[in-house]
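FORM 12-B: Structure-to-Sequence Request
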């Protein structure tokens, strides 16, 4: 039984939490010098795309992951070498049949309200994720049968069937303060748990991470304050405060960088915008491979992309060299539907720019005699202006072979709503997708399994039971050689049927001031690998503000 004592000081802390939105006190107002108005705090301000959320039970997008990995801890996490290392758990063991995973927790880890993190909090967090069934729950739902506490510092997960990458998905099980969440439950649809704290966690954190959320304004910004009682270590000169500013508009970003109101840009700027940022005194421009693939997702259930020949034609009419050399310098042509460097990757995607082959595919399609009245809608995400360049390139080359392409600009929030239904999902959509863990099964699952249809992660609407079965078979195969063989078969099938087009692997670019120690950039310069799991490149406790 967990025993907690909350002092009068902590009670005041909770009152402040309710008043300010997020835990702790409000951040000090900023000045144009990159420092707060008083106190000499070290601050990092970074821009990211709008739409970030902070409830760890519902998130999957990049901005949200950057925020949440800093506010919450997990049992283990991926370091920058892509290795799973201890965090809340100091050690673990797995049964010979792969069905029972037992973790021993570190003692004395504090939540942001000062109470101790214990095994019951892990159990609560796992049950909440599974019950709500949103966000990263899809990684666990077919395998996790039961989570239980052996004592205050021991947690056992029982799986319904073996799941080879189980350790690799645990960084997505963020640990919440059970007592705090329960004390803020509102009316809802989860029985005794009400809304499971959803309303509260939309604007407040209940974590033990290196940073406390001190302010949350939807579609605007998330402000994080250093948690001085964090059980882990901070880099010398680690930021005292971090502002995640949800704005990617190039003119705004340039102005803010020039006025030192922004220290690190987002990765969604145009090449022209990056060049302008690079010209600002003291600003560096760098990039690193993050395992993210720039996709042209294809709706396989909507005319005319329901025809494999139309899909193949689209694959052949993309000028990949122009994409990687002119539109997105530094990017590398993708040669698989999964990123290089993950377990199970194999080169199984061999489309190239060939208009003659594209014409042949059109002739074989069921729409060959109706091309004049047939159009492909290509949506691009308004929050990432450079994506329009790919859409326009496709439109121009398609015109040369008699295929009409309509280019549509769509805000991210609208896109997320549109893809919930087949009929409102465009024929093709430009989207960046990252692996949730470093194995081919991660990308194959989120891109092609029926569970992710109706989400932004898969607009193909594949819904093929045979494909689902192969993916699940791979994930439950503990023999690595056999598992990799299934991954290879799936990658070839994705190529043969052109379910979607992996255009290029992203070189994640950021403009940043030279006083910022940016670990991922330092590793890129040293030709070292960088963690692929979204958000974990931005563990701000490993950054530094050296000025």
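FORM 12-B RESPONSE
SEQUENCE OUT:
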């Amino acid at each position: 039984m967990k025993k907690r004592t909350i002092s009068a000081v902590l009670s005041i802390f909770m009152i402040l939490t309710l008043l300010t939105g997020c835990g702790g006190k409000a951040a000090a107002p900023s000045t144009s010098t990159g420092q707060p108005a008083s106190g000499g705090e070290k601050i990092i301000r970074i821009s990211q795309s709008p739409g970030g959320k902070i409830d760890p039970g519902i998130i999957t997008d990049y901005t949200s992951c950057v925020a949440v990995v800093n506010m919450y801890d997990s049992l283990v996490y991926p370091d920058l070498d892509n290795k799973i290392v201890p965090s809340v758990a100091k050690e673990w063991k797995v049964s010979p049949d792969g069905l029972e995973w037992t973790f021993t927790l570190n003692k004395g880890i504090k939540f942001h309200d000062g109470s101790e993190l214990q095994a019951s909090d892990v159990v609560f967090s796992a049950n909440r994720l599974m019950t709500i069934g949103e966000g990263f729950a899809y990684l666990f739902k077919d395998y996790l049968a039961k989570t239980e506490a052996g004592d205050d510092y021991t947690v056992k997960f029982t799986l319904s069937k073996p799941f080879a990458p189980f350790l690799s998905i645990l960084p997505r099980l963020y640990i919440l303060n059970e007592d705090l969440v329960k004390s803020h439950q509102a009316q809802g649809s989860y029985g005794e748990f009400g809304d499971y704290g959803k309303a509260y966690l939309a604007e407040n954190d209940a974590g033990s991470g290196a940073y406390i959320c001190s302010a949350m304004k939807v579609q605007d910004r998330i402000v994080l304050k250093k948690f001085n009682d964090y059980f882990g270590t901070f880099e010398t000169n680690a930021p005292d405060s971090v502002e995640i500013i949800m704005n990617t508009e190039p003119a705004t970003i340039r102005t803010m960088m020039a006025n030192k109101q922004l220290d690190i840009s987002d990765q969604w700027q145009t090449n022209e915008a990056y060049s302008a940022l690079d010209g600002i005194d003291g600003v560096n421009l760098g990039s690193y491979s993050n395992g993210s693939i720039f996709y042209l997702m294809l709706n396989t259930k909507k005319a005319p992309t329901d025809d494999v020949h139309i899909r193949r034609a689209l694959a052949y009419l993309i000028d990949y060299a122009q994409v990687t050399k002119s539109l997105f310098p530094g990017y590398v042509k993708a040669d698989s539907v999964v990123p290089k460097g993950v377990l199970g990757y194999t080169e199984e995607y061999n489309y190239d720019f060939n208009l003659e082959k594209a014409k042949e595919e059109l002739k074989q399609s069921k729409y060959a005699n109706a091309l004049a009245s047939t159009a492909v809608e290509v949506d691009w995400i308004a929050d990432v202006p450079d994506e329009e360049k790919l859409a326009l390139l496709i439109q121009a080359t398609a015109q040369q072979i008699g295929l009409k392409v309509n280019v549509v600009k769509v805000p991210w929030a609208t896109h997320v709503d549109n893809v919930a239904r087949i009929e409102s999902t465009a024929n093709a959509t430009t989207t960046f997708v990252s692996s949730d863990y470093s194995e081919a099964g991660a990308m194959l699952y989120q891109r092609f399994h029926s569970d992710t249809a109706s989400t932004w992660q898969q607009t193909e609407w594949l819904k093929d039971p045979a494909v689902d079965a192969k993916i699940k078979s791979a994930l439950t195969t503990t023999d690595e050689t056999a598992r990799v063989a299934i991954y290879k078969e799936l990658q070839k099938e994705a190529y043969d049927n052109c379910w979607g087009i992996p255009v290029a692997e992203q070189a994640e670019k950021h403009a940043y001031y030279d006083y910022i120690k940016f670990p991922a950039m330092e590793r890129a310069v040293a030709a070292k690998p960088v963690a692929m799991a979204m958000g974990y490149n931005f563990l701000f406790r490993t950054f530094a503000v050296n000025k």
